[in-house]
Amino acid sequence: MQHTDTIIKNGYIVTINPEMDIIENGALAIDNGKILAIGTTEEIEKNYSSNKVIDASTKIVMPGFINGHTHIAMTYLRGYADDLLLHSWLQDYIWPAEARFVKAKFVYDASYHACAELIKNGITMINDMYFYSKETARAATKAGMRAILGEGILDFPMAFHKTPESMINYAIEGHEEFKDNELIDFAITPHSIYTCSKKILITAAEKARAYNMLIHTHLSETKKEVDDCLEQHGVRPVQYLDSIGFLGKDVSLAHGVWIDNDEQKLLAEKGVGVNICTECNLKLSSGFAPIKGYKENGVIISLATDGVASNNNLSILDEMDMTSKVHKAINNDPTFLNAEEVVRMVTIDAAKIFNKEDKIGSLEVGKKADIILLERNKLENMPMYNVYSHLVYTMHSESVQDVIINGKVLMQDRKLVEIDEDELFDKARFYQKELQEAKSD
Amino acid sequence: MQHTDTIIKNGYIVTINPEMDIIENGALAIDNGKILAIGTTEEIEKNYSSNKVIDASTKIVMPGFINGHTHIAMTYLRGYADDLLLHSWLQDYIWPAEARFVKAKFVYDASYHACAELIKNGITMINDMYFYSKETARAATKAGMRAILGEGILDFPMAFHKTPESMINYAIEGHEEFKDNELIDFAITPHSIYTCSKKILITAAEKARAYNMLIHTHLSETKKEVDDCLEQHGVRPVQYLDSIGFLGKDVSLAHGVWIDNDEQKLLAEKGVGVNICTECNLKLSSGFAPIKGYKENGVIISLATDGVASNNNLSILDEMDMTSKVHKAINNDPTFLNAEEVVRMVTIDAAKIFNKEDKIGSLEVGKKADIILLERNKLENMPMYNVYSHLVYTMHSESVQDVIINGKVLMQDRKLVEIDEDELFDKARFYQKELQEAKSD
């Protein structure tokens, strides 16, 4: 009998392993942040003991959701301005507010609030891009959130960084500083092809590869971006990035709304994954990502909320629901994007996009213990004939009861274990007042 | 000082009155099921007292949501079959299950479960169509839910009714039987133009008008329905219904996906409202309702979940979010369907569709006390700059804390006051087992 840190027993385990095994009355033994064993409750109880046993009798046990593109430090700008044209939203509201308020402390506080909110949404890893990203790293570490973090690289001076090289160096510093932190990776994240020169895009990719860091950028969010690229470079965005040696298995894209068939083939060939932000793209009328083409061409795709200034929450379950329904309709095929596929997108497929499929994205022996438990005993979750259908079409984040990241229990029975929500409310009210006053200036 | 049944005080009151007034630190006095007074907390406390005072300090207080088209007795078929073509979904799964299981007790039990679920979603009135609708009336009465109920009229024999006339008479009986029930109205509800003959549609409308009952039917859900109507009657569905004298201010439609500009004008002229079921229409690939045209032509529109067999939950907040985002995208205009409009759609506009705008749909003196309280102190609801934006783009039903229908408190701090959820879970498990076994037969 081996003693372990934690045992979860009696659960309805949705493994997302290659066979998509479901274990009824299943159990997991967790030790040292990893999954040590998985099987029926009987099997696990025979071989493992623990002082911390979680009874999952009425619960679904599955890998945590991965949110493939966020700007979590924008929490305090949630709902700051809505129902506007993109340029007015950015130029009249978001950018002025950011220029005035975004400082290290703002980023730390907003990121910490967002981490608490992410946990309540069952999200166990994010891929984030913003400014002062080392502050976000500190907040994520404190909250226990797994995160890939990038410092947005722009080819013009900002309050915090005078040059794009300084932005790249900041991320490399973060990479060095957080090297031994099991939760945090730093990535190199040029903001976009329209805010970065060719030279900086090339430098960014070279530096990332020199330090073995992931690369992430916004691409082809709007039609205008593609038209401008064609005018300026004579080729479409994916071809442009390919021509400068930017693309590779270490690259992932956000949005990818306006990507044509040839570009999709190129992404598949280069192993570049796309994080689709359905709700944000709809709300800002950017368009519908070509999910059918991505699937046909073998591009790995996942889902993401983007920042709450444009969505306006961090629920991946919402993205799953909306993406599946909307893409059935635009493809005129109710069998398109079935529920099981959508659940894979936000777990194992997302893990593949970030080259982390050996560590996260499924419940398998040796993987990190990033696990969520969802309650079946709720009016809206009953009856349940197919767990994937429920996850995509029925459930809300309210069903997420327990969240474990890297083996640590962060939420139990919907209560955050270490984070004081009242403190976060006070902080949010403080920033709301400041931002509200600025708006009426 | 006048004594009243209930006082709600210190709330952020979203009235949805014609001026769309918001009362910060507002209060309401409720007596005999109605709103007796509304104003600031100071004003109300000066003039009214009560033994039951609800403190809404951290809450939004607003009229309950209206769900304009449901089949609540289908609860136990939630997620029974998904990701299928419409005809296979109906013919291979839903109809056989209904033929075998739908009996009076099934309808009562499923409806009672659904009423509990509706309350948890902040819904204070539904417009429902199904079979054994008097059982649904009894379940809604027991739960305290306001409901307009119709017996689906089909022009072929069913287990329960051998003729469509019997279906019409059943609804008229319900109308008589529940005449003094403040919560329940019966309506006459021909299922559709493709399941009812011209003769039965005419009889249905005549009978409804003789008894002063509302009329509701599915219309133009799919393109095929329109094509078939053109072939059979030589005109489109709205023109067809108009030609037989069916349309009027007492009629409301469900779906209305394939309605052209001329039909929209005709609906506006006749005062016929449309309850749009966005999620269901997307999930079954039926199409995108012409919301822009409806608005331009002055057709009153509202939102509805349809049944949970095709959606798969009863959240109106989800419908609001998805409708607004999807229609911004298909109209290529992020300013389209702003948040305030969407909130009106599911409150006062829905009330107008059912000719109940003098009774419900807003918080005004003399109206029924159908009121919901939503929690502001939640991570995902902070900060809040615009309450409408939060309702449409941010909030989930988890934020609904308290629900009052006809002056009676049905949910307090997210706990149902009189309904035992554990009993409902047991029942749901029982039916799930039966239905599951039937599926594998």
**CATH fold-level assignment of the largest domain in chain A:** TIM Barrel
Count the domains of chain A.
2
Q: Look at the structure and name the CATH superfamily of the largest domain in chain A.
A: Metal-dependent hydrolases
Any idea of the CATH class of the largest domain in chain A? Alpha Beta
- Average per-residue pLDDT of chain A, rounded, comes to 97
Query: Tell me about the biggest sheet of chain A?
Result: 9 strands, mixed
* Distance linking N and C termini of chain A: 67 Å
Biggest chain pair interface? A-B, 73 and 73 residues
Give me the number of helical elements of chain A: 15
Uncertain parts of chain A? none
> In terms of structural class, how would the helical and strand content of chain A be classed?
alpha/beta
In terms of DSSP E residues, the strand content of chain A is 15-25%
Residue share in helices of chain A?
A: 25-40%
Q: Assembly type of the shown chains?
A: homodimer
Gyration radius of chain A (Cα, Å) is 21 Å
- Give me the count of strands of chain A: 19
- Shape verdict of chain A: globular
Structural overview:
The structure is a homodimer of 441-residue chains. The first copy, chain A, is an alpha/beta fold and 441 residues long. Chain A has two domains: 2-63 and 369-416, Roll (Urease, subunit C, domain 1); 65-353, TIM Barrel (Alpha-Beta Barrel), CATH 3.20.20. The first copy, chain A, contains 15 helices and 19 strands. Chain A has helices at residues 41-47, 86-101, 104-120, 133-143, 164-177, 198-210, 223-233, 237-243, 261-270, 278-283, 291-297, 316-330, 339-353, 387-394, 421-439, and strands at 2-4, 6-14, 22-31, 34-40, 48-50, 53-55, 59-63, 65-70, 123-130, 146-153, 184-190, 214-219, 251-255, 273-276, 301-303, 371-375, 400-405, 408-412, 415-416. In chain A, the strands form three sheets. In chain A, strands 2, 3, 4, 6, 7, 16, 17, 18 and 19 form a nine-stranded mixed beta sheet that branches. Chain A has an eight-stranded parallel beta sheet with strand order 8-9-10-11-12-13-14-15. Chain A has a two-stranded parallel ribbon with strand order 1-5. In chain A, helix 3 packs parallel to helix 4, helix 12 packs across helix 14 (387-394) and helix 13 (339-353) packs across helix 14 (387-394). Chain A is globular and about 65 Å long. The termini of chain A are far apart.
